[in-house]
């Protein structure tokens, strides 16, 4: 298992060992013991799975507020995505910054997204099976998001976002600046 630091505070890329031969491959996608040995000790309580049937599906940028905040461990089982996260923790050295990571069935990378980050992705291929573990249960009342097309964030999506396939809900999220008044994420307190 390899843990790679990123430019965003507390975000990690995880590379599990992959053993392949002429039949395919085997990987242990998660081991609580191995993660804890790397200082990544989370109590994941819920697994989520989404299927996006077309390239150009854009989901996000989502998070759970307050006590329902979630750390996520994300991976792609089929297809490929550009996974994007934005640090929304007030006082963080990387507050308001975003970074994107290619996650695919071929690179087997996983992304550890801490509480206090908005998260989204765009599919680069059709038939993307996207899985993630959460350390807290989903709460509809705590559901939140920021605009994927916030001009101040300037996210460099690899598609024409005017043609992105999105949900109605995702088209209505506030910008980060509009969200700031109700933002309860504070760096070092989550």
Automatic annotation (TrEMBL):
Assembly description: Homodimer.
Transmembrane segments: none
Catalysed conversion reaction: dTDP-4-dehydro-6-deoxy-alpha-D-glucose = dTDP-4-dehydro-beta-L-rhamnose
PANTHER family: DTDP-6-DEOXY-D-GLUCOSE-3,5 EPIMERASE, THYMIDINE DIPHOSPHO-4-KETO-RHAMNOSE 3,5-EPIMERASE
Enzyme Commission numbers on file: 5.1.3.13
Keyword Isomerase: yes
Protein purpose: Catalyzes the epimerization of the C3' and C5'positions of dTDP-6-deoxy-D-xylo-4-hexulose, forming dTDP-6-deoxy-L-lyxo-4-hexulose.
Keyword set, alphabetical order: Isomerase
Pathway field: Carbohydrate biosynthesis; dTDP-L-rhamnose biosynthesis
Keyword Isomerase included in the entry's annotation: yes
Enzyme class: isomerase
Family per record: Belongs to the dTDP-4-dehydrorhamnose 3,5-epimerase family.
The protein's name: dTDP-4-dehydrorhamnose 3,5-epimerase
Molecular-function GO terms, alphabetical: dTDP-4-dehydrorhamnose 3,5-epimerase activity
């Amino acid at each position: 298992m390899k843990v790679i630091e990123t430019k965003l505070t507390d975000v990690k890329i995880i590379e599990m060992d992959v053993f392949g031969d002429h039949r395919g491959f085997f990987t242990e996608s998660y081991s609580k013991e191995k993660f804890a040995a790397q200082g990544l000790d989370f109590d994941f309580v819920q697994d989520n799975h989404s299927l996006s049937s077309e390239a150009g599906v854009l989901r996000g940028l989502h998070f759970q507020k307050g006590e329902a905040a979630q750390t996520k461990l994300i991976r792609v089982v089929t297809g490929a995505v550009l996974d994007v996260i934005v640090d929304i923790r007030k006082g963080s050295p990387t507050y308001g910054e975003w970074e994107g990571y290619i996650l695919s069935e071929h690179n087997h990378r996983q992304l550890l997204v801490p509480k206090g980050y908005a998260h989204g992705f765009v599919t680069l291929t059709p038939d993307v099976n996207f899985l993630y573990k959460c350390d807290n249960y989903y709460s509809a009342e705590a559901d939140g998001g920021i605009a994927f097309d916030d001009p101040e964030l300037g996210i460099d999506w690899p598609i024409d976002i005017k043609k992105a396939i999105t949900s109605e809900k995702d088209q209505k999220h506030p910008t980060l600046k509009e969200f700031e008044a109700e933002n309860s994420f504070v760096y070092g307190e989550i």
